[in-house]
Each structure stands twice: as structure tokens, then as C-alpha cells.
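lol so apparently i was supposed to do this last week
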Amino acid sequence: MITVTVCVGSSCHIKGAREMIARFNEFLTKKGLEDMVELKGSFCMERCGEGINWKINDEILSSSSAEEGAKMFRKKVLNALKEKTPEGPAEGPGGRRI
Ligand code: FES
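anyway here it is w/ FE2/S2 (inorganic) cluster bound
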């Protein structure tokens, strides 16, 4: 399961966090990935000046717009899912690649 957390603090909200979440949801529904990606909201991530802030697992990301965030989301989520499939690279204890 991949966890995607989007800041829904006031600064990110004004920049389009809500629209970005809607686009993330739309993509997951279209691709049938709702059960593989958990979408969560968070309070201010204390990076208000960076753009719309969000995370894929522990990787912190910033997007200048909902559109840019949606593009990044598609690419990163598909890559993350590819790494988790049995055909993908094997992982040792602690998620380290072996
Ligand atoms: S409101 Fe999103 S980082 Fe502060």
C-alpha cells in the first residue's frame, strides 16, 4: 500500500490542494488503483512557501499547481507500484534493494 498525504492547510488549500486531491482520486478510480493507494490529508507541513505540499510515503514533494501535481502523482505512483510488484526489483529487510 502506498500512502499519499496532501497538505490541506490554508496556504496549500488556496493554491489548489483540493483540486489536486480530486485529480488524484480521478486517476486512481480510472486505473482501478483505489485499493493500492491510500489518500490522506494533513495539517500544515510547514513548507507553505514551496507550493502545494504532499508526500508519497516519506518523500516530500511540492507542486506549483494542481495540474503539475497530478502529472507528478501519475508518474510517481506508477513507478512506486512497479517497484512493489513481484516482477520488480527484490527488496531485502527494511525495504533495501538487494
Ligand atoms: S499550508 Fe501546506 S505547508 Fe503550510
